[in-house]
Amino acid sequence: MVFIVAGLLVGVLLGGWGLLFLRSSGKYDGYSRMAMEGIRLARLAPPMLYLLERLKVSRRLPFFFYKIQRSVQKIGGDRRAGEYTLLFMAEMLTYGWLLLVAGSLLSLMNGDASLIVIGAVMAVLLPAALINDLHRKVVKREREVLLELPELLNQIILLVGAGSTVQQAIKHCLERKGEGTRHPLYRELLQMRREWEGGYSFQQAMEGFSKRCGIQEVSAFTTAVLLNLRRGGNDFVLALRDLSRSLWERRKAVSKTLGEQASSKLVFPMVLLFLVVVILVGAPAVMIMDL
Question: What is this entry's stated membrane topology (predicted)?
Answer without folding.
Answer: Multi-pass membrane protein
